[in-house]
Write a structure and sequence with these properties.
- The C terminus is likely disordered.
- Helix 5 crosses helix 8.
- It is globular, with a radius of gyration of 33 Å.
- It is mainly α and about 400 residues long.
- The longest helix has about 45 residues.
Length: about 400
Amino acid sequence: MAELHNDFRDIFRVGRYGFSGKKISLHFLGLVLAYLIYEILVYLSLLIAGGTAAKDFWDKYGLLPALPIVNGDFETITAAAMGTGTLVLFVLFFSMSTMVSKITMQQLRGDHFFSMGESIGFAKKNWKVVFGTFIGLIVIFVLCAVAPIVVGLLGRIPVVGNIIVMLASILTPFAFMLGLLMAYLVVVFGLSLFLVPSVVAAANSDTFETVYQHFSIIWNQPWRIVLYEILLFGVKVICSAIWAFFCLAGFVIAMLPVRLLVPTDMKVIMGQADKWLGGLIGKLAGLPYIEAVKVFHLAEPANLPIALKIASIFMAISLLGIMGLIIAYLLSIASAGNTLIYTILRKRVDGEDLLDVDEEKEEIPISPATPNQGESQPEAAQPENDEISEAQSGSEESTNNGATE
């Protein structure tokens, strides 16, 4: 079992807890699935829209995902596809985060051999709790908003609308309290985006208890939540930057010999891959110190041979994979860090140590040869006892007869 200080010092361990092959692999898998679903939905919607929409989108973005909140000049069907893809990303992220949080919790408890398969089984068992918590908070907020909405709608009725609003104004103090509750719910929902997978993984709680834990933590430890999340954000930035540097350095070291031996082909491959990635490589090459790395020099591809086209496809996929690994580590730190934060806060709120979990006691079967005291023997055993008694009586009779003779 990990020895924690149960304060801010434990947050600085998160970079190490997040740097795990199992945790990074789970988030990487979620990112890959979300990316594929997103791109398929978007390009299908563009093909349905017709015209040159698909070609224009490809020329501008290539294989890079374009979110509707960043670029809003899309057809309705494409915007709907982007929204659906974003929802898929949301579902996959919190599913993977639940698995990573469970692996982290078992690691803190001393179980370093908790497998990815077991974490998947845990997520399958508790996914309703994770997403039920979000839905539950939204439903509570909607129910609180029903009263002012109804008053506003009634106020639009001609003639009597003003009277209804006047009478409803008497309940303004109650409306103020309701507004405070709704503001509190917004804060709770914001916190749930960070802690729901951690609460479910650490406490193995149901939906009601998960919601209650969020209210309890915000009410009792608000300043620690802010402080710990700020520290976690700093750890994520520093560790992700270091991981990105090593990933970039590894790519450069692997590609530099090819760049030096066949510079023209390498430039053409990078130029074509840059088109596949919507100009990402060109933007990367323009960053400070990166332009000195000759690996990212580009050349305009013209009449590209089929072999180099295939090479550019794999180059683009490889760069996307490296980006996915960097983001996966960032998400792994977030999942592991929030699990550790919840463990500390739970200790602070009610003194419960979530790492100290008693092992489930196995039920020892009772042997039929040694029945418990005070319990009668089964009726099925009585015929055997009767047979034994008859056999003993028969043997005694034969002995007496022999003695008489």
